[in-house]
Amino acid sequence: MFEFLFKYPLAAFRKGEFALATGWPLWLLALLVVLGCGLVAWLARRERSRLAAKAGLAVLVLQCLSIALVLTLLWQPALVVQSLKSHQNVVAVLVDASRSMAFGEGGLSRLQRSAQLLSEQVLPGLEERFRVRLYGFGASPERLESLAPEDWPAPRPSSAVGESVLSVLRESTAVPLGAVVVVSDGSDTTQRFDRDLLAEIRQYNVPVHTVGVGRDRIEGDVELAAVRVASESLPHSRVSARLTIRHDGQRDLATRVTVRDGSEVLASRAVTLRAGEPVRREWVDFGAGDAGVRNLAFSVEPVEGEEIRENNTRRRVLDVPRGRRRILYAEGEPRWQYKFMRRAVHRDASVQLVTLLRTSVNKYYRQGVDTPEELQDGFPAGEEDLFAYDALIVGSFEAAFFTPQQQAAMRDFVSRRGGTLMMLAGPNGLGAGGWHLSEVVDALPCELVAGEESFLRERVKVELTTQGREALVCRLDTDPGRSAELWAELPELADFQRLGELKPAAVSLLGVRHGRDLLPLLVRQNYGRGRAVIFATGGSWRWRMGLPSDDVRHDTLWRQLLRSLVAASEGPVRLTSDRPEYADDSRMLLRAEVRGKDYRHANNAQVTAVVTPELGEQLSVDLTPSASAPGVYEAEVEIAAAGAYRIEAAAYSGDERLGADTLHVRRESGVAEFFRPERNRDLLARLADRTGGRFWELDEAAQLPREIRFSEAGITAREVLDLWDMPALFLLLLFLRGGEWALRKRWGVI
Amino acid sequence: MLQAVAGRRVLAALAVLVLLAPLVSALQFWGGRDRGGDPRAWDFDRDPRAEFQFVRYAYGSGGDSGGWGRRRGGWRTDWPDAEYHLTAGIERLTVIDTAYGGKFVDPMDDELFDWPWLYAVEVGRWHLEDREVDRLREYLLRGGFLMVDDFHGSEQWARFMYSMQRVFPDRPVVEIPAGDALLHTLYDLDQRTQIPGIQYVWSGTTFERDGFTPHWRGIYDDEGRLMVAINFNMDLGDAWEHADTPEYPESMTALAYRFAVNYLIYAMTH
User: Fold this and answer.
1) Residue A255: is its pLDDT beyond 90?
2) pTM for the full model?
3) Which of A192, A526, A588, B193 has CA atoms 20 to 30 A from the CA of A494?
C-alpha cells in the first residue's frame, strides 16, 4: 500500500534527501504562491455577501493549499538517494544455525522455514542485483554454499548474533558490502549484545536488516530464567537464593522448586505460577552445610505437556570455605549478654569471637585470642591490627575510652576495609556513651539519642518489622510464617536503648514496643565498602534464660546475626568473574580488585591466577591493570571444557604477598539455546534500527530485495526519484478540491 | 521501806541486764543486722536498675529450709550484711553495674530465671524436693550459675550431695583445677586458703566439724563450663558479713571478696 501511494519504498524516504528537480528559484515559487493566494482572496471578497466569515476563510485556505500544491508540482519535487549499483555490490545473508532454530513450529523447524523463505522469495530477488554471500552462524559465522539441506551446518550449541554480524563486517572490508541480512530467532546466548557492540557494528555504516523467525510466546513452557545466589557462604549458614521463573502467563500452573547438591535435596517447595504474571520471583532458603564446594542444581519441576524441559534447571557453585571469620568484640563491662553471646557461637565452625572485656577500671579479660600476645595491649591502636578482623562489635563502652585515631580507624574499618561494625546498647553504649560525638557517627545507621537516660532497664517486647520478616538474619524457622510466630512467643528483653531517626539508607529489622511506639532495635545500613549495625539492647539474654533449655532461638539468632556480620567481609584481594555460570560460552573475564594491608588500592601489584578445571590441565594467567578503575586487574581466560573451575588469584607487591582469593565457576555445555526459546524481537529490532536497516516479519520479508538497494554502503550511485507523479499527491489535490466542493454544497453556494 | 524495795528491784533489774548483755551481744554477733521477720520486708530494692543483683536461693519452699523453719531458714544465714558489704565491694573493685544489697528468690518462682547468678548458703542442711530439683537443673542448663557456701564436714557434704546428685545424677563433682579460668578472671587465686567463719574469732580454728581441708569443687556442663561452684569447708558468707568486725581477719574478708568477684565475672563470661 505504501509503495502504491508513495511510489517508492519507505527506505527511500528515510534515506533520501528532498529536492526540486527543475532548479527554478524557490523565491519565484513563493512569490507565485503568494500572488495566487492574493488573487483567490480578492475573489473571495467579492463573494463575502454569499458566504459567512468562517466559511469564507475555510474555502480560502483550501484554495490556497491547492494553488501551493499545483505550483510545487510544477517545480518537480524529487528524492535524491544513494542506491546500490546493480551487480557490483555484495549482500551478506546470515542464517542462524543455532540449536534453538531446530524448535518446531507448524510442522517445520525455524531453520526449515527460514531456508524455505530465503530460497523461494528473498534470494532470487537479491541475486538479480547483488552478489550474495551466505553464512550460517552460531557462536561465529561460517560460509555456506547454498541453503540446500545437505549444506546446512550442524546445530550450534550457542548463538552470538551481534558478534557474528561484526565478524562478517570485519571480514568484508575488502568487498563492496551493501547490506547485511540476518535471519534469526534473536537468541543471543553470549550476554554480550550491548551498547558497545552495537556502536562497533554501527561504525561500519552498513545497514543490517533482520528477519525474525519463531513464536513470541511458547505455550506451556516454564523456564528458570535466572538464579541469584551467593557464590560463597559460611559453613552451616542459611543461604537464600532468588529464582526468577518465566512462563507464558496464560493459566495458573502448579509446580515445585528444588535445590539439590548431587542427589541430596537441600530444599524443595511447591509454587503456583499465576495467570497474568509471566515473571515470578521465588526465594528458596537452604543450609550451606559443611565446608567444601557444593555443585548446586536449582530446578523447576516440568509442568504437564511442557515442550522444552532443558530450561528448567540451572547450576551454580557454592564455595563453603574452611576457617573461621574473626570478630573483635570490645565490651566495657561484664554483663549477661556478653556471656550468652559467647555461648551461642562457642562451637561455631564459621565465627570466632575474640573478646576484650573491661573487668575493672584498668583490667581487661581476653577470650578467644589466638596467641598470648593478641590484644595484650588492649584495643588495637592502629589500622593494621584492627583491619585484621572481619567484624567489630562495641558494647557498653564509652566513646571517650577510645582515642580519636582509634575512632577514625573504626570508621575506616567500615568504609575502607569493608568490615561490619555492630554497636550494642548499654549504660555506656551508643548515645549514653557519647558516641553521637565520635568519629564513627557518620557510619551508624541512625541518629543517637544523647544522655544516660537513653538506656532504659525496662522489659520490652520485640516485634519483627516488614523488612525483618524477609531478612534471613531474623529467620528462626525455614517457614517465614512459623518464624514470625516464634518471634511473637519470645520473652521480653531485659533492657533497650532509645535511638533517633533512621538514616535514609538504613533498614530496621526489629523494633520494640514501648507504649504506643515501635522503636527501632536492630538497624543496619551499608557505609562505604562495609556495613554498620546497631542492636539497641543488652538484654537479649532473657531469650535464653526465659525459654526451656532445649530451645535454640536465642542461639540461632545470635549465630545468624554474628555470621551476617562477617559473611560479606572481603580480604585484600577480591576475585570475580563476569558471570556466575558460563553456558556454552568459553570466554571468562576475570577481575581482581587488589588492596594493600591498609586496604587502599594497590596499583603496582603482580596478580596471577591459577585456573584449575574439573578435568584437564591447570592454567596460569597473569592479570593486567585495568584502565577503568584503580587497583583492578583483568584477564580473559578460555574455559573450553564443561565442568567446574577453581580459580585462585594471588597478588604480590614485590616480594610481599598482599593476599589471595578463590573463585569457583561452572561451564555448561549444550544448554544455552534452550533458555529464552521464544523469538527475541527486541534484539533484532534494535540491531536493525541502530544500523539503518529494518526489522522484517517473516511473512513480509519477500519485499526485502526491493528495499535493500537504498543503502549508502558499498558501491552506490546518486539516483533522483521523481515525486511529482506520486499518486498520493494527486489524491491530496483531489481531496482539497473535493473538500471545497463538498463545503460549498453544504452551505448552498455552488 | 518502799525505797529499799525499789532499790532492790533496780539492782535486780540491773543484774538481769548485766547477765543478759553477753547473750544479746552474741545474738547480735551471729545474727548481724538481722531484724527478724520475713526477709521480703528488707528486700528494699525490689526493682533494681542494675545488671547484677545478688540473689539468694531461698530453698526449702516445701518446709525444709535448713533447720530453722521457712522464715528464718538456713538459706538466709549472714543476711543482709553479707549482701551489703559484698555488693559495695563489687561496685568498688569492678566495673560491673551492681545493685546495692540483695534479693532472694523462691526455687519455684518463675522469677528465678531472671537472675543468672544465685547464692546458696548452709547447703549442708538443705533438702530439695523433686520439683525443686527439676527446677534447679533446668535453671543451670539454661545458663544459670550457682555458688554454694558455708557447709562443713562429711555429714553436711553427704546431705548436700543427696540433693545435688538428684539435680545432676550423671555429672561428677570435681575439684576445680588451679588453671581453671574461675580462679583467674580478675584475680589470680593460686593459694587455696581456708576462709573461716566467725567462730574463728573465739575458737581460733579455721575449720568446723571434721571439715579440716577446704575444697573448691564444681560441676561442669558438656562444654566444660562451670555451672555450680562449691565452697566446701569454708564460709565466705561470714567473711563478707563481718567485713566491718574488727576481730575478724581482714585478709580473709579480702580473699573472700576476691573469690566472689572471680566467681561473678566467670559467671558473666563463660
Assistant:
1) yes
2) 0.78
3) A526
What is the spatial distance between Cα A135 and Cα A143, in angstroms, rounded to a whole number? Answer: 4
Q: Does the beta carbon of A538 lie under 8 angstroms from any beta carbon of chain B? A: yes
| Minimal-distance CA residue of chain A relative to B137 | A549
Across the interface, whether the CB atoms of B93 and A360 are under 8 A apart is answered: yes
Residue B92 neighbours by CB distance under 10 Å: 11
Terminal CA-to-CA distance of chain A, rounded, Å? 35
Phi, psi of A180 (to 5 degrees): -125, 135
The pLDDT confidence band at residue A15, using thresholds 50, 70 and 90, is: confident
Query: What nine digits make up the cell of A364?
Result: 581487661
Residues near B10 by beta carbon (within 8 Å), at least 6 away in sequence = none
The secondary structure of residue A399, as a DSSP letter, is: G
Distance CA B10, CA A148 (A): 142
Cell representation of residue A544: 535464653
Question: Quick one: closest CA in A to B225, which residue?
Answer: A343
Share of chain A above pLDDT 90, in %: 64
Would you say A65 and A736 are in contact if contact means Cβ atoms under 8 Å apart? yes
Is A93 within 8 Å of A114 (Cβ atoms)?
Answer: no
Chain length of chain A: 750
Task: Report which residue type is found at A622.
Answer: D
Question: H-helix or E-strand containing A32?
Answer: helix A26-46
Measured between alpha carbons, how far is A710 from A574 in angstroms, rounded to an integer? 52
Q: What angle do CA A416, A358, A378 make, to 5 degrees?
A: 50
Hey, what amino acid is at B77? Answer: T
Three-class DSSP category at A661: strand
| Chain B: closest CA distance from residue A320 (Å) | 26
Best of A329, A338, A339, A348 to disrupt the B interface by mutation (most B CBs within 10 Å)?
Answer: A339
CB atoms near residue A25 (< 10 Å): 11
A734: helix, strand or coil: helix
The pLDDT value given to residue B63: 54
ipTM, two decimals: 0.87
Can you give the pLDDT at residue A93? 94
CB contact under 8 A, B93 and A549: no
Q: How high is the pLDDT of residue B14?
A: 53
The pLDDT, as a whole number, for residue A51 is 66
- Taking the C-alpha atoms of residue A501 and residue A445, their distance in angstroms, rounded to an integer, is 9
Q: Return the residue of A nearest to B94 by Cα.
A: A360
Over residues A307-344, the pLDDT tens digits come to: 889 999 999 999 999 889 999 999 999 999 999 999 99
Tell me which of B46, B92, B95 to substitute to probe the interface with A (most A C-beta atoms closer than 10 Å).
B95
For residue A533, give every residue at least 6 positions away whose Cβ sits within 8 Å of its Cβ, in sequence order, or none: A420, A421, A422, A423, A445, A522, A523, A524, A565
B26 pLDDT exceeds 50? Answer: no
Q: Give me the residue from B94, B143, B144 closest to A334, CB to CB.
A: B94
Query: A19 pairs with which residues across the strands?
Result: A78
Over residues B172-183, mean pLDDT: 96
A50 — pLDDT class (breaks 50, 70, 90): low
Q: Does A335 touch chain B (CB under 8 A)?
A: yes
What single letter denotes the amino acid at residue A537?
T
Q: Say yes or no for a CB contact (<8 Å) between A346 and B141.
A: no
- Cβ–Cβ gap A335/B113 under 8 Å: no
| CA nearest to A415, candidates A387, A375, A434 | A387
DSSP state, residue A431:
G
| Residue with grid cell 513452557, as numbered in its chain | A221
| Cα atoms in the 13 Å half-sphere on the side-chain side of B4 | 1
Chain B: nearest CA to A510, how far in angstroms? Answer: 23
